[in-house]
Specification:
The chain is 61% helix and 12% strand. The chain is α+β, with helices and mostly antiparallel strands and 317 residues long. Helix 2 packs antiparallel against helix 3, helix 3 packs parallel to helix 7 and helix 6 runs antiparallel to helix 7.
C-alpha cells in the first residue's frame, strides 16, 4: 500500500495521491506477452489440424483461441497507450484505452460465438467425415497450451479487467479443447460424427457468459459506477470519524481503469482547523484512511469551513 501524499491549494481544495499511476495491465505485460506467443502458436497448429481432420470443433477452438490472441494483442497495445503521460487536454492520460480494449474483446467473443453456432447447427443436419487422430492431437496440444497459460496468468487476473478477460478466455479455451477431445473419443467409440458439431456448440456456449460478464464490467467502468467492494456509507463513516470533521457531502467514487479507483468529496471541518497546520492534520488523516481501508489510488478533498455550510446549494451523496 502506498503512502498518502497531500497537496494543498487555495480555497480549501486538496488532493491525496496513493500509489502510482501504472495500470494493472501494464504491471503484467510480460505475462500477457508469453501467453500471446503460446496462443498464436497453437492457433496455427489447430487451424492446420482442423482443416486436415475436417473437425468443426477443432476449427471452432482455433477460432476461439485466435479471438483470445486478438484480445491479448488489444490489451497489450492499450496498456502501452495507457502508459503515455497525461496532458492538459487529457488529464488522466489515455488510461481508459484499456477499458475500450476490454470492450472490443467482449464484442469479438460474441461474434465468434454466433458464427460457431450457425455452422454447428448446419452440420447437425448431416455429418461430415472427421479424421479423429489428427483431431485429438490438435485438441490435446491446445489443452496443454491453455493449462500453461492459466498458470502464467494466475493471480494477475484479480488486478486488471484485461488480464481477467485473458484469463477467462484461456480457461474457456481449455474447456473447449477438452470438449473436442471428448467429441473425438465419442466418434472413435461410436462413429457418431455429429459429436463434432455438438462440441462446437458447447464451445460457443462457453464463450457467451464470459463475454457477457466482461462486457458488464466494462459498462460499469464507462458509466462510472462505484467500484466493486467499495461502500460509500463506510467511507462516509470513516471520514466523519476524523478529528475536526463536521460533515461530508458530494461523495463520488469511480474507476478510471483497472486498478485505478478515484474518490472525491467535500469535507466540512471546524473553522479553527483551516490554518496550515490544521489542514495538514485533516488531510493526512483522510488520505491515510482511504489508502489503508479502501485502496483508493487518487483522492480529491475540498475542505470547507463549517460556517460556510449555509451558503452551499442543495447537496447530493
Amino acid at each position: 500500500m502506498g503512502h498518502g501524499h497531500t497537496h494543498k491549494h487555495t480555497h480549501g481544495h486538496a488532493h491525496s495521491h496513493v500509489g502510482n499511476t501504472q495500470t494493472a495491465t501494464g504491471r503484467h505485460r510480460r505475462r500477457l506477452l508469453v501467453v500471446l506467443g503460446i496462443t498464436l502458436s497453437v492457433v496455427v497448429v489447430q487451424l492446420v489440424a482442423g482443416f486436415l481432420s475436417g473437425s468443426l470443433a477443432l476449427l471452432a477452438d482455433a477460432g476461439h483461441m485466435f479471438s483470445d490472441a486478438a484480445g491479448l494483442g488489444i490489451a497489450l497495445t492499450a496498456a502501452w497507450i495507457a502508459a503515455q503521460p497525461a496532458t492538459d487536454q487529457r488529464t488522466f492520460g489515455l488510461m481508459r484505452a484499456e477499458v475500450l480494449a476490454a470492450l472490443a474483446n467482449a464484442l469479438v467473443l460474441m461474434v465468434v460465438a454466433v458464427v460457431i453456432c450457425i455452422e454447428a447447427v448446419q452440420r447437425l443436419g448431416g455429418g461430415s467425415e472427421v479424421q479423429t487422430t489428427t483431431m485429438l492431437a490438435g485438441a490435446a496440444l491446445g489443452a496443454g497450451a491453455n493449462l500453461a497459460g492459466l498458470l502464467i496468468l494466475h493471480g494477475a487476473h484479480r488486478e486488471s479487467l484485461n488480464v481477467r478477460g485473458a484469463y477467462l478466455e484461456v480457461l474457456g479455451d481449455l474447456l473447449g479443447s477438452l470438449a473436442v477431445i471428448a467429441a473425438g473419443i465419442v466418434i472413435v467409440a461410436t462413429g457418431w460424427v455429429q459429436a463434432d458439431a455438438v462440441a462446437s456448440l458447447l464451445i460457443a456456449v462457453l464463450i457467451v457468459p464470459r463475454a457477457w460478464a466482461l462486457l458488464r464490467d466494462v459498462v460499469d467502468v464507462l458509466l462510472e459506477a462505484t467500484p466493486k467492494g467499495v461502500s460509500i456509507e463506510q467511507i462516509r463513516e470513516h471520514i466523519l470519524s476524523a478529528p475536526g470533521v463536521v460533515d461530508v457531502h458530494d461523495i463520488h467514487a469511480w474507476t478510471i481503469t483497472s486498478g485505478m479507483p478515484v474518490f472525491s468529496a467535500h469535507v466540512v471541518v471546524e473553522d479553527r482547523l483551516l490554518d496550515a497546520e490544521g489542514m495538514d492534520i485533516v488531510l493526512d488523516r483522510l488520505g491515510t484512511c482511504l489508502g489503508e481501508h479502501f485502496d483508493t489510488e487518487h483522492c480529491t478533498f475540498q475542505l470547507e469551513p463549517a460556517s460556510h455550510r449555509d451558503h452551499e446549494p442543495d447537496q447530493h451523496a
